[in-house]
Amino acid sequence: MSALLELEDVNKDYRVGGFLDRSTLHAVKHVSFTLDAEKPEIFTVVGESGSGKTTTARMILGNETPTSGTLRFMGKGIAQVRTRKERLDFMSRVQPIFQNPFEAFNPLTTLDYYLFSTARRFLGLKDKAAVDAATDKALQHVGLSLAEVRGRYSHELSGGQLQRIAVARALIPGPKLIVADEPVSMVDASLRMSIVNLFRELRDTLGVSIIYITHDLSTAYYISDRVIIMHKGDVVEAGRAEEVLGNPTHEYSRALRSAVLPPDPVVASAIIREKLRAI
Amino acid sequence: MFKILRDLLRYNIEFAIGFVLTLAIFLFALAHFWAPLPDNAIYLLPPDMPPSAQYWFGTTSRGQDVLWQMSSAIWNTMLFGLSVTILSRLLAVAVGMISGYLGGKWDEFLMTINDTMIALPNIPILLLVYFVMRDQMSWPVLALTAALLGWNYDARLIRSVTLSLRNREFTRHAVFAGMSVPQILVRQHLPYVMPVIFFTAMNNLIWAIGLEVTLSVLGFSDINRPTIGGMIYWANQHQAIIAGIWWWIAFPIIAVVLLFLGLFLLAISVNEYIDPRSRLSRMGA
Amino acid sequence: MLAAVENKPASVEAKPVLRVEGLKAYYQMNYFGVRREVRAVDDVSLTIKRNEIYGIAGESSSGKSSLIKTIAGAITPPLRVVEGSVKFDFGGKELDVYAQRPAMKAARWKHLSYVMQGSMNVLNPVRKVKHAFHDFAFKHMGLSEGEFRARVESHLQRIGLDPRVLESYPHQLSGGMRQRLTIGLATVCEPEFIIADEPTTALDVLVQQDVLALIKGVQQRMGSSIIFVTHDMTVHAAIADRIGIVYAGRLVEEGPTLDVFQRPQHPYTAHLIASLPRIGDTRKRVALGGKPPNLADPPSGCRFHPRCPLAVDKCKSENPPLLARNTGRVACWRAGEVEAA
Lengths: 279, 285, 341
What we know:
The structure holds three protein chains of three kinds.
Chain A: E1 3-16, E2 23-36, E3 42-46, H1 53-60, E4 68-73, E5 76-77, H2 84-91, E6 94-97, H3 101-104, H4 111-123, H5 128-141, H6 146-149, H7 159-171, E7 177-181, H8 189-206, E8 209-214, H9 217-223, E9 226-231, E10 234-240, H10 241-246, H11 251-258, H12 265-278
Parallel strand pairs in A: 3-8, 3-9, 6-7, 7-8
Antiparallel strand pairs in A: 1-2, 1-4, 4-5, 9-10
Chain B: H1 2-11, H2 13-30, H3 66-102, H4 104-119, H5 122-133, H6 139-149, H7 152-166, H8 169-176, H9 181-218, H10 228-237, H11 240-243, H12 246-274, H13 276-283
Chain C: E1 18-31, E2 34-48, E3 53-57, H1 64-72, E4 79-90, E5 93-96, H2 101-107, E6 112-115, H3 119-122, H4 129-141, H5 145-158, H6 175-187, E7 193-197, H7 205-222, E8 225-229, H8 233-239, E9 242-247, E10 250-256, H9 257-262, H10 267-274, H11 313-317, E11 323-325, E12 328-330
Parallel strand pairs in C: 3-8, 3-9, 6-7, 7-8
Antiparallel strand pairs in C: 1-2, 1-4, 4-5, 9-10, 10-12, 11-12
Organism (chain B): Devosia riboflavina
Family (chain B): Belongs to the binding-protein-dependent transport system permease family.
InterPro entries (chain B): MetI-like, MetI-like_sf
């Protein structure tokens, strides 16, 4: 088996506080996992705020360097990516999806600028027609077309559409891995499933692996192959999604699991009544 | 461009007033190219004439027409002020944005220079330059020196704006879209920095003109070239106020105040127009 | 089919505590000649009974926040009330929010209070928590300093907070505790009506249920009414007695929570509920096509028609009125046909 992404005992510490009460925050502690290059999958990192899930994502993208441990992408250390050429090469194979689609596009820039820039830089296309064709092809994968997007600004589209454009942009260089940090938390409920379904399709049709970072156990269960649950920097539970989320064993994952309200008034109101009695 | 001007004139009273004032003074200053007498000629007219039908703003003790002196003076002073402003804005934007975006060693290096220059006193430095240059001291040299002294605070301000933009998600997105640093700075960040540039430009212009007047009044500039400061210098030399030649001083000062007022109104209304929030509202966000 | 089913009055003896009639509130803006009118609240009528929790569900920029701001009388230009009225009934005395402003001001916090989304917006970070209680509630209670302090302490104890939190600064408390405090702050005067805007959205999952239970408990004990807004349908499922679904500035469906979840009448509601993922179920959920409408330029007729799987010609031209149906109300020309589709 050849590994797409390997994390080996990765740690990240931050110094916090001022002159007098300086201390060290262990944001990520001893995280190890491997993604297989031959078998694309949706790998989900579940955690609350402060669990270290976003720091982990940023290290995978090369935006943060680990305090200790190594991250390797296709056999090469991510920390060894230094020159601009190496960086561009790395970015053509690992692409991010950001949390808030309204923040991820500059409101004063047209959306196509991001798409065209990606096509020009990573595919080395010069010809306008070729850039258009590459962009349109990527947009087709997410159910849109260049005609719908050209010349538009972010405020003219919905959060769901913007997030799909962000996915299309990430697809242009033909990446092997997409790191999506809370990609649906700012997207409306009626549009959320279209993004989540899209991730499934990318895995199945394009063979892209996806690291899905979320606090939402329901969508995690819906799309993930494997899941790790993080709590204060530690991985407390890891395994197949059905097992980890369906039948958690660690104390924290059980608490997290039972904190999820089902979308069913009978069960949900019974849970609240139960809580009420306990108070 | 024409549509923007029309919208601004129609819907923004500040812009309309500022535009009319500035345009009027500009046309008045432009008229000096058609002046009947050269602006450095002296004693060609009867001196100390009060305002009259023949000499609208009177004549100076040096036998010059105040009207035509003013026309040249405003032109020269504006030329100086705008040169300083444009040069120093370019410096401030370049240093501020590069420092804020690149951070690290670049930031440290540029901000050390910046902070050192903030500590330097302006007037003594300019006097020093004047004494070193002596006869080679021309207004472009003075403008360049002033520009080099006038960008530091604004570079810091622009740096802080860029610093906050650097941490926005769209900047990270732009990096992963393969955009180069100049592309990110010009296409992504400059629209947010523009209002700062406009606003500080106004302050800088006032500072530059004030500097020119100060130096001229002290006699540390080319006094044969009419400027607002130069006019006050000569009026002072001839003790115009004691002699009751009030028109020699009053009219140039009124002109400068009107010019400032016009530019100020223009700056604030244009600022409101190019502000990202108001731009977005007009686009329908 | 649309025959009004007999609307069983929930309690004949009590008048509703809030009546909103034909309320229209628009954002009216003018930027350098670009005039825009955003119909954030468009002809909304609803009543809220005593002792009930009414949940308002809707997506971002559906106008749900504008609606509760307008109900609270807390709107600022460019948002303006164009038509309609908001009337409260506090202890048998009617209070028109937009006609009796001074009386409304006096009723704030005593009869009507708010729980806001970001607790840090309410609690001043550089002042101790006790000052917040003093600023908000003291003048409404008519008690002496000592009595007031005793009342606040016993109130905090009842909602499960140690009275010592009064002497701490907001940043020393966890997010869950701060949200408890804002609930305590909103309920210390035992108001008859509480408005809550996304009270659990910013909270960590683990404390969400506790905060919801707290809101429910306080409401039951005081017998007050709560109107709350959230986009999270599971929160509505957990504590709302009735739900109103807002789409593009209009109320499109309303009814008892259980009925809305089990027998949604409006296609939009039906979709919203069907698309909710649940643990233990990986069957493919179908997402709704299209995009939420732009309120500055809404579609003609029924505003949902461009995305609606059941739309017919009539939906494009005529706006369906909100009519009584089964146990609730619904605004749809094809109400109730959704299960067949």
